[in-house]
Design goal:
CATH superfamily: CDP-alcohol phosphotransferase transmembrane (TM) domain
Number of domains: 1
Structural class: mainly alpha
Shape: globular
Strand content: under 5%
Radius of gyration: 17 Å
Helix content: over 70%
CATH class: Mainly Alpha
Amino acid sequence: MDKKTKGMSFANKVSIFRIVSVPFFVTTILYYQPAKDYLRFLALGIFFLGVISDALDGFLARIMQQKTKAGAILDPLADKVMLSCAFIFIYLKDNLPGAPIPLWLVIIVLSRDLIILLGSAVIYVIKDELILTPSKWGKYTTFFQMLTIIAVLLQFSGLEIIAALTAAFTVLSGIDYLRKGLKVLF
């Protein structure tokens, strides 16, 4: 059985690392030029560290039985900050080689996250509690969103397929979270 710990666990520090790494990722994307292709690989490395840290913080919290209230907020927040910034800034950077992220996918990703954040705030205000339980659909969504960013940075030629899967899982998880949120409210 998991014990709730107070304070900052090591897993929480890993989540904070993911948040702190976002400006470095964004900077490498913004300063990217075809003549400075190494910046694309640097961005990939930073993003990949974020992906690894996402898996690591959840694993550490479970294995060390250090699930905290802070971690319940920091982990999904770190994912949303990292992925939202990646989708926005890669979309805006028009000279990245390979297939660009389609605008419709950026809108789907950001809309889902905004709905989840606003829904969580409404539930908190009305019920005076914050219920943040990840669903399997949310985990699949995070995986495919991360895969999309990696595919773009690696110039993967099958981006259309990955984008379609990402959109499908993003919409499904959004519907699932919306359904669960409405059930909590009503």
